[in-house]
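We include the pair:
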Amino acid sequence: MTHRVRVGSVAIEIRPHTKGWQASYYDANRVRRRVTSKDLDHLKARVREIAASLAEQSVNRLVPADEWAEFQAWKRRRANTVDVTLDHAIDAFLAERRQHVTRSTRDVYDLERRLHRLADAFPARHIGDLSTDDLSTFLTSLDVSARTRKNYRSAMVRLWKFARRHKWVSVDDDRLTVAEIVPTIDVPVQDIGILTPDQMRTALDNVHDHWRPFLLLAGFAGLRAEEIIATRSPAKRPVDWSDIDCQSATIRIRPETSKGRRGRARIVPIAENLNNRLRDIHQGAGPVVTRSPHDYNEFPRLAKSAGLDRWPQNGLRHSYGTYRMALIRNAAQVSEEMGNGISDVRQHYDRVVQESDGQAWFSV
């Protein structure tokens, strides 16, 4: 039976031996070494230290530019890859994404903006010639937040996976592209922005009638903006008045409406305060909202009326999750209602406000 210990790009195998177990490897000077022990766990620990040292030496080794280019060319020949410029790869990738827009056109817009900035950093370069160090240096050079830098890395990973399918880039022994090997970026958890019950009451008193259902469904049912109005998701079907049943106090979110993972359907309960307000404006059938308040500067106007410097991003939905958790203290149920992961609900919404605050919110 063979055991393998891997640290970074270094893998050392441990095999049975007459004296117990033996590991064989080449050191940094390409001299063959062997380590033997009767205790497998002890040998694994020792081999892990050796592999870590070799991996560190490999990472810190300076490779001349011509030697690196020669190595990359050899890898492409071995993998039968095709030389394609980074610009061409990006254009082909974006063209494919535009043909398969099922969730939101904003995703394509974000990819285009980030990847074109990457192309500007490496003009006339072949995508197969770029290294993990090149991409890491690019990310480090960006004067952006950790969250934004993580989004850039994600865009690059998606591009390189696309290029791998077309045999434009090579992969390592673990089938990873250079973009996937770029170290992940830790993003600190940030406090979410929510509204107080008084601020929500003021907003409802001042909102234009067309967007009142938007505020109600987002703030008191936790629906996503893309589920209420699908202007950025052309393949999606926004919630319809026929999906809102005031008699049974439920909202049916169809798969073609849901923006959650895999577009799973769900049932959202209608709180009493929401039910009372919806009864007065329910239209039986048809789209609930046909225009997005984001496109008409409605939220800045409401923020001013409510005494806010700015309207909190996703503030209505975040308010629902926060106050709903304060009331029922059941992350699984709130997760089901919002179409979020349980871990996200616990991370952002659990024990942020008091139960009395939740009662006040759902009494607006």
About this structure: The chain has three domains: 3-60, 65-181, 197-361.
